[in-house]
Amino acid sequence: MKKLKPILFLITLFALTSCEIVQETKFEPNGSGRYSLGFDMSEMMKMGQSTKESNNKQIDTLIVFSKFLEEKKDSIAKLSKKEQKKIKQLENFSIAIKADSVAKKFVMKINYDFKNLEDLKTFAEKLEGQNIKELELLANKTSKPAGSDKDKKENSVLDFNKSYNTSFNSKMFSAKITPEGLEKALKKKDTTMTKDNPMSNMIRFKSRYIFPFKIKRVSNENARILSDFKGIEISGNLYEINKDPKFFDVDVEFE
Q1: Is pLDDT at 233 greater than 80 in this prediction?
Q2: pTM
Q3: What does the pLDDT read at residue 148?
């Protein structure tokens, strides 16, 4: 099993593939919750971009790391203290994978149960450098050999949670791009991209927030309020996000 690079930094905006990236944050009243980052690369498989590992295979699996760590606790105890501490960071993660090379489907979702918003910001850090064989399916589909490691990281989808200042309580929710994130987005803005550019819809992003309180008001006109009035969803493609780096900024007021 080879050591993987941070999974979030293997998904480049400039990869010539079709992919939908969905992040969902579900809050509990006390500020804890579950964060999910999902990738649907079915369209990519339909275009014939499959890997040797996924050819002629059907996969439907759920990996709950808390159970895995319990089952392997004797083996983990033989590792160094540093290695034990690192693998312990996976305790609140789970990964769901559904792949079918015949039906040309590939969907992966990484779930993380967070204690609070500060804990949520450690999502990517805890995945970095972990030995997770199952993530090779995603890594092989999204990684590109060109360029240095530094270049790859610069061209990658950054961790959403660190790119936004987020707050939540019983009265309101807010998510705003950080000054650093905004500066970087403006610096990389492609002024030549047009709405009808075929590339603009090859990668689509969706942010979904689920709350324990009913919504009274939403600031972002791009947001769709869910039917139970306890959640919102904002969808955008590369053109929309490139045009407006604050596309996903939102303030939500509860009843």
Answers
A1: yes
A2: 0.80
A3: 41
- The Cα 170–Cα 37 span in angstroms is 24
* Nearest residue to 58 (alpha-carbon basis) of 109, 101, 97, 96: 101
- Taking a C-beta distance cutoff of 8 angstroms, is the pair 180, 34 a contact? no
Residue keyed to tokens 């092989």: 140
- Cα torsion 124, 126, 127, 130 to 10°: value is 150
How far is Cα 131 from Cα 57, in angstroms, rounded to an integer? 22
CA–CA separation, 16 and 205 (whole Å): 16
Strands (DSSP E) along the chain, which ranges? 19-27, 33-40, 58-64, 93-100, 105-114, 164-168, 172-177, 203-210, 215-218, 223-225, 231-237, 250-254
Contact 213, 170 (CB under 8 A): yes
Report the amino acid identity of residue 39. F
The encoded tokens of residue 166 equal 């987020």
Number of other CB atoms surrounding residue 138 within 10 Å: 21
Radius of gyration of the chain (CA): 19
pLDDT at 136 over 50: yes
Longest dimension (CA), the chain: 57
User: Please, which residues bridge with residue 210 across strands?
Assistant: 26, 231
